[in-house]
Structures are given as structure tokens and as C-alpha cells.
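Discussion board: Methods & Data

I've been asked by a reviewer to show the raw model output for two of the constructs in my manuscript, not just the figures. I'm not sure how much to include, so I'm pasting the format here to get opinions. Each protein appears as its amino acid sequence followed by a line of C-alpha cells. Is this the kind of thing reviewers expect to see in a supplement, or should I convert it first? Here is construct A:
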Amino acid sequence: MYGRTTDEQRFSPLQQINEQNIGQLGLVWSRELGTTRGLEATPLVSNGVIYTTSQWSVAYALNAKDGTVLWTFDPKVSRANVRTICCDTVNRGVALYRGKVYLGTLDGRLIALDAKSGNPVWDVVTVDQSKPYAITGAPRIVKGMVLIGNAGSEFGVRGYLSAYDGESGKLVWRTYTVPGDPAKGFESKALEDAAKTWHGPYWVAGGGGTIWDSIVYDPALDLIYAGTGNGTAIYAARAAAIIFISRPFWRFVPAPGSWSGTIR
């Protein structure tokens, strides 16, 4: 699981490596992935296989013992997309669930792959590809659904989080993080209330607020927490928590003029 737990605490309970023997660790193997550009994926390991990604949303399965590449999947993203991608053509990883590997792509697709062969099971477009959306974040799994956000606030899009059925790829729900054009109505009361705090024709520039990664789930409260990117144009950076039934539950908005960056 990405982050090891649904709330992504990442702490490992394994005890084979400890303070007494950590000095004995050494390199066993290494594997280059055919690029000199950034690698930002968090690899997942299951049953002796490492699943990871590289540039241009290319996915890999490797033997954890010796680094042998078991399969590679290239979604064939058009290189022209680089014009509307903020921060290099990176990918932050995959999700695993019931024999499938889930991959988000730079051209806004969500793809399910067979974990053993790497062959596509289903492939859906999650964005309006006529607009400068992208996906660089890793999908997350919640209650049999695959959650995926998107990026593109810098280029004038409207952010949202989508949930797809893990087996069929069918869209289950979608929640927007910022209000849209008031003339078209609001998807929820929360967005209607949020629109009252925005000024001018904000919808023309999309509004931003894309959920480009950070998505966690609290099973005790049945809540999804999702951080968002910057607003489009003059609008402040925002962060939101989204309840599992797909409507905004609460949100935190930084003070006007504040800015955020990637925290590592």
C-alpha cells in the first residue's frame, strides 16, 4: 500500500534491520530506468516484486532479489504534453489492489494493469484532454475504489478528486475543490458557500486547487483528506478534506498572500 497504511504513516514494523546490524547493509543490486530526468515514485513491494514508475508515466515490475525487470508498461504519452506540465514529466508511483496495478498518466488517464503480466485491463480518461490537465500523483485505494486527482493549476484548470471502481473502471463519484461558473449551478452547498468568498470571474481561469498527490483515508472517521495545489491566477493556495460520501466536509484556507511548496 502506498505509504504502508491508509493514513500513510509510512513507519515500518519490520525488525530484521535494527540499530545493531544496520552497519552491515550494503548494495546488492541497482537498476537504471533509462532516463536522466527525475524519479519521484515511492516503490511498492508485494510477493517479492517491486512496482515503480519512471518518467512519462512508464511502469515497471522488478524482481526484488536481483532487480531483473519482469515487465514494463509504456502508456505512450505524447511528448507534446510537456508544454503544460508544471514540474517535469515525473510520476509518483502506483497502487496495488487484488491483482492489479493502477497507474495515473501525464495525459490524464487512469490505467489498470494485470500485476503479473503488465497488460492493460482497463484504461479511462479522467480529465478533459483539451485542457492542460496532467496526472503525476499516485492513485490511492479506498473501499474497492481507486482515487485519483490531477495537476494543472498553473495553467488554468479546476481541481477535483475522482473515485473509480477498481474492477470495472467506472466512475463512482467526483468532488471539486473549488467552485465553478455560478451560472451553471454548484455541485454542492459547500461549493456554493465557497463561491461567496471568491471575487470576479474566477471560473474563467479554472480556479486551480488541483489535488496532485497527498490523499489519505481515515477508516475510523470514514474521511478522505486531500491536500490541494495553488489557486489559479490571484487566488490563494487551498487545502481541503473531503468526506468519503463525496461532498466537502471542511476545508482549511491559508491566509491571502500565502504560498506553499512541496514538503519532503
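Construct B, same format:
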Amino acid sequence: MYCYRRSIALLSVSQDSVITLQKTLTTSFHCGSISPMGTDAFVVSSPYNKPPVRTIDVDGNEGKIQHKLLPDKTYSFTLENACAFIPQTKTLVFTEQGQHTVYMCDLTSGEGHVIKNDQIRGPRGVCAGPGGTVFVCSEGTDSVVQLSPQGDVLASHRVDLVYPFVISVSKDHKRVVVGNILVLSNSSKDQTMIKLFSIV
């Protein structure tokens, strides 16, 4: 899946890596990031709206996520936030890049954790890891930080990418792919790249 402005593209990838567009959903809100929420629904960051996270299913039915920890504000930049759903713990994870903050919102109990840590600077992309853990791209430290289900920092890994921005874990939880954003400079290191890592 891929989202841009007011649309979401649902894609399939064949065994020989052919990407096919299955369906396009038109939304009533601007989309930032997207994460699966079960087999037929998604959570989507919506920075220009309150609350800043929405849900949508494969038929285009939209919903809102309300949680006491989610910031009650809108954002001026589409890429200021990212979100992910952690199925093992029914937790929504929301990053706030400008505040160096990660919110972990338990959608069952209504409780959660607000994480601020010196190892997380400018959090961007986020995804579910093995065992209910969370991987967060820390743009300001060029690293990926792994959080426990309770929000504790388990590890921080330098990824040799300038401004890591997006992250995803394979279905078997054995590999993680990290991409960065385009950086314009004269350095050969400062370029858009995608890297694949093994999870140990």
C-alpha cells in the first residue's frame, strides 16, 4: 500500500517481484503514512486533521481514532508524523518529529506511554517488530531505535543512512528494510537509499 495526498494505492507483489495496482481508495483527508490494521483495514496519519490518525478499510470506509495521548492539534507538514499498528498489543504508535516524541496508545485499555529519549531525535517512520516491539527511525541520529511494548529503549542501531525515514519488517520478522529521504549535497553519502538488514 502507498498513500499520497487524498488517495491510497493498494498494491500486490508477485513472487518474481512484479508490483501490481489492485485498487485505489480516495479519501476525505490528506494521508501521511499508512500501516496495516488487520487483514482488511489500515491506520493512516492525517496531519491536517484532528485527530491526526484515521482508519480506512479496503472498501473505503473511514473512521477516527480517539485516544487521550494523541496530540490535539494539526500539523503544517505531511511528513511530520508517522503511525503504525502493533497487532500483538492492539497499540497505535504515532511519531511527532518536531517534538522528538513517540506515542504508544493502547486501544484496548485507553492507556499508553509517551516516549522521549535522547536516542530518539526527530522520529519518522515506525513499524511493528517481533514480539510486540516497535522500530522507530531516528532521523537526527541516523539510526533505528527498538522499543519494548512498554516503551523502553531496547537497542539503537546505526544504519549508515542519512536521515532514515521509512521502515518495514518482513512478514516472518527476520528482515527489516530502511529507506531515507532525498538529501541534496555534494557528498556521495547523502543520497536516497534503501538498505536491508537481518533481525537477530
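Answer (T.O., handling editor elsewhere):
This is acceptable in a supplement if you add a one-line summary per construct. For B, something like: Residues 36 and 42 are 4 Å apart (CA to CA).
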